[in-house]
Amino acid sequence: MPSIDNDIRPIQLTDETLNNRKTKLLQKMTEEHLDAVIIYADLEHGGNFEYLTGFVPRFEEALLVLHANGKAFLILGNENLNKAPLARIKAEAIHMPQLSLPNQPMDTALSIAQILNQAQIDHAKSIGLIGWKKFTSSTDDNSVLYDLPYFLVEGLMETSPIAQFKNATDLMIGATGVRTTNNENEIAHYEFGAMLAGNGILSAMDQLEIGKSEMEVGSYLNTAGQTPSVVTIMATGERFEKANLYPTTKKIQLGDCISMTVGYKGGLQSRGGYAVRMTEELPEEERAYLDRVAKPYFNAITTWLEKIKIGRTGGEIYELIEEVLPKEKYGWHLNPGHLCADEEWLASPIYPESTEIIQSGMLFQLDIIPSVPGFSGVSCEGGIVLADQNLRLRMQAEYPEMWTRMQARRNYMIETLGIHLSEEILPMSNATAYYRPYFLDKESAFINC
Q1: What InterPro entries does the entry give (predicted)?
Q2: What is the pLDDT of residue 239?
């Protein structure tokens, strides 16, 4: 079993990184001829906002208005107005109490449009609205689909009557989005969460025993007071009974299906299988699980890790997984791999016929989800980052402890798990690719041979 990462410490984003983020976005705005962009955030959808400000608005909503000349405004509710002086981007604060919680004081004589007008967008001719979703529908006009609350879109259009509006989320995510790749500081920042998730899944797997409750095992998944990026899952037997998503007092029984997931900024780990020690302990009709589900799945995982390369297209990777794990037979339908950052799912360059290029600095979540009728789920989700020689040298020079950890993980995956990684592949946690589908057999795991 891989070791637990010890002495885990968060790495803060530097002023240089934050300044570079703003510069990159301003360059994209110039290329797209945008006078201003307006970035929306709430707790669940704050990544694009946090990318520049350094914080999410917790339980409120917020807007960041960025002009092409670099001037910025933060439009905030009652309990986040005090965050403006602390933001990582220099910005003028504007109070909009309508962004606050229900029944809090909304003592203002100004309408929403009048408040928005303080951000000096009334003469803008082209404005990009950025929520969190890059729409890719084949039937709608994606440029005019806005995932901002109606009251804000309506107010913005009243405030800026001459402006042409468009969904500009592709400036942040997608093939040419500024958040698609990461520098060495960002990778070190995100490794913290990836390591926490790896430690959590390894600890929970080690603690899983017959008679323990979901909550007992689930308590090992979350740690260090950090906010998860997804709902933590520890389920035994049927998942989501009566629509419940959370661990309960239900106790693990021999032969139960098991599902575990924990994620933080920078990475997620997920495992699925059975609470058994050997095949004979499975229900008779499910004893073909290894050959029918788990082995083909692990083969797809190792194939993905061995074949993904800087310069390949996302379409090539998609077809590769379709070849070794045909979705018609194995029931997967989501993207076999996606980017992550502050969000668990940022975007994905891997989809049918994708011409998006796999790039250095991409932080990937290896996420293939088969669904074969009659059997438990299967999962060995984890994260890696791709880094070319220049990025690797910078990582080694600036963050030698991280570099040493990543090399130890590579050695484990290559020498113990038998997965032949290229130099470009750097695992984000010790748990990546470690998979034992029989959770009670703590001495055996899959290897590539």
Answers
A1: Creatin/AminoP/Spt16_N (IPR029149), Creatinase/aminopeptidase-like (IPR036005), Creatinase_N (IPR000587), Pept_M24 (IPR000994), Peptidase_M24B (IPR050659)
A2: 84
